[in-house]
User: What shape does this take?
Amino acid sequence: MTFVSAGRTSIIVALHHEPIMNSSTALEQPILPEIGGDRRGDRRYALHLDLKWKLVRRRRVLDTGSGATLDLSSSGILLDAGRHLPVGLTLELSVSWPVLLHNVAPLNLFVSGRIVRSDGRLAVIKMVQHEFRTAGTAAEQRSVATAAAAQASRHLPTPVVLFGGSGKRY
Assistant: This one.
């Protein structure tokens, strides 16, 4: 038992000691409670999704790149950024989401968060803000889609315009 005094406040600290046998000698070692298992509050999902990132400091973009998520939860993301990212800075992500909105429109998950750990190419961010947005199609894809629609319309029969009983258009 240890007695610690700090001015008017006194604290008593007690550690449980149990002898540990070493060779034929008993040594006293304090037994500290072990912390085991995964202590994260949110479930993590192993999703490998493409992403683009921006490293931001004081609203200024310092660097950009692309990578992939390794796993994510409702509060954080583990990602492969392709290079080392410094801890403490803000990272903005645009993650290609694997599900279409109404089975039609592609989605992106936009995330802003603080880098809390970094090891080589891997980084962990704690999410501060997130939202889903529809992903815009590239101009190149739009022009291909427009050309395909125009080609298809050439092979369709000419539409018939129906008029009211008096022959006037309404």
Remarks:
- The longest helix spans residues 139-154.
- The two ends are 96 Å apart (CA to CA).
